Amino acid sequence: KVLPFEEHFFALPSDLQVNVVAYLCVPDILKLRQVSKNWLQFITVNETPISRAFLEHNRIPRFAVDLYPLPAPSELDLYYISELWRRLSVTSKLSTLLTDWITTDIFLRNNETQQLEFSPQRARIRRRLIPIIFTIAHFFETYRRLHLRHVLENGCPLLPENYIINPIERHIMKLYDNETLLQVHQFFPFLLSYLSRKLRPPSYFGRLERSLHGYSWSSLPPPVLVGILCIGGMKEVTRISKIESYDSRRMAVDDWYSAMFQQPIDYAHETYHWPLGLSQKKSKHPSSGAAPNSHLNQTCNTPTARNASNDGPGDTKDLKGKGKQKASASSLSVARTQRLSAEHARALLKDLPTLEQIWVPTAEALLLARRAIERWQDIKRNGQAMDELILDEFTAADELFYGCAEPSFDPSNVKRGWGDLLDGDGQEMGR
Fold first, then answer.
1. Which of 3, 6, 43, 194 would suit a FRET pair with 168, their CA atoms being 20 to 30 Å apart?
2. 253 within some domain
3. For residue 385, is it within any domain?
4. Closest by CA position to 29, among listed 16, 37, 38, 40
5. Does a structural domain hold residue 369?
6. 362, 166 in Cβ contact below 8 A?
7. 150, 168 in Cβ contact below 8 A?
């Protein structure tokens, strides 16, 4: 009589059981818990050994472990592994979509022959976009958490009139070294352009053409785009971008907005600044209600505080190196995030700045303060940034992706596992 697989498997020594399971991908490990009570008990009891063995078999990309540091060996669990896998999966999918858009809309490789000839450059673009998009995803995820905390603790908006450098953005960007900050800053406008083009009909269509094609939607209020980036994050951007039809994409945005804020988008006022009927009076002079922001603003306005914040010229000695400033495990470890309530989502959206005030002003100010660039004009233009993505040589983005600085590094020698995810489209994983 042939014994069932479970009996054969659980007859093995415990260390062999752990190693066998650790060779599976993360979604399959999590699904094993649903097979039977024996599997659920085995995965639960051996969660830490399985996680350690998984990391031994699969090399974590440098950019991922820099932003989400490994916990202590005794605290390592499948939640850390699964969250890291989910973030890499979303980043991989969005990088693929952006690469397709760059190939067709920027490099104008539209037919099959041109795309086949461009395939080596396309592979480099996608590989180099992955750490950039991952960094942007980390920025918005952390920004959402810190900004909501500020709103709930202080009960007043963080107005642009009350600071020189956004203190929340500066706190996050301190984790990025100069090269990473510059690369992400150069690509950030492309992500905004990609999202805005996905959510509006072709600009060369007139009113009649739009009507004939069924493009009868009004333009999205600007705060909705901010909400998609800051509250929905890269997962929502990816989900919307994968929808082929323009009308279906707009319906998906409306559905997401209604589900998140428990209120439909108000298209009646296209000139207002904030949705949901909420408005902010922005005075040029800080009012008494802005007092709770003073502890944040002092670190941005005084020269002494600038030097103490590791962002001023006095600290360029530590910042100009190529070493990544790693996040502390206590402040930016993988938190067990919960879904925002509609009340918190509305409060957060009301307080978010405009799209033009997110990332760009703070990043440029920090690049100049760190002396990563001599002048604002030294930031590479869009064309130069795109050219660097297709260079047939080892670049800083490759170093961040592979975690190796030697130009003679052979990518084929990298251990597989996480690389399998990054080389393919990945799998969306449920909890």
1. 194
2. yes
3. yes
4. 40
5. yes
6. yes
7. yes
The answer for 420, left when phi > 0, alpha when psi is -120 to 50, beta otherwise, is alpha
Which residue is associated with the tokens 């930016």? 332
Which residues, at least 6 apart from 157, have a Cβ–Cβ distance to it below 8 Å? 151, 280, 350, 351
Residue 13 backbone zone (phi > 0: left; psi -120 to 50: alpha; other: beta)? beta
* Domain span at 344: 91-203+213-266+340-419
List the one residue out of 359, 100, 356, 362 whose CA is nearest residue 225.
356
Residue at token pair 């493009």: 215
Residue type, 393: E
For residues 201 and 213, the answer to whether their CB atoms sit within 8 Å is: yes
Instruction: Look at the chain and report how many structural domains it folds into.
Output: 1
Q: Which two tokens stand for residue 28?
A: 């399959």
End-to-end CA distance of the chain: give it in Å, rounded.
37
SS3 labels along 104-156? HHHCCCCCHHHHHHCHHHHHHHHHHHHHHHHHHHHHHHHHHHHHHHHHHHHCC
Distance from C-alpha of 107 to C-alpha of 104, rounded to nearest angstrom:
6
Per-residue pLDDT of the chain (431 residues; tens, 9 = 90+): 445 888 888 889 999 999 999 999 899 999 999 988 889 999 999 999 999 999 888 878 888 988 999 998 888 999 999 999 999 999 999 999 999 999 998 888 989 999 899 999 999 899 889 999 999 999 999 999 999 998 888 877 777 666 778 899 999 999 999 888 988 998 998 999 999 889 887 665 666 666 666 665 677 888 899 999 999 999 999 999 999 888 889 899 999 999 999 998 887 754 444 444 444 433 333 333 333 343 343 333 333 333 333 444 333 333 333 344 444 433 333 445 567 888 999 988 988 888 888 999 999 999 988 888 887 777 766 556 777 777 766 666 666 666 544 333 344 444 444 555 565 544 444 33
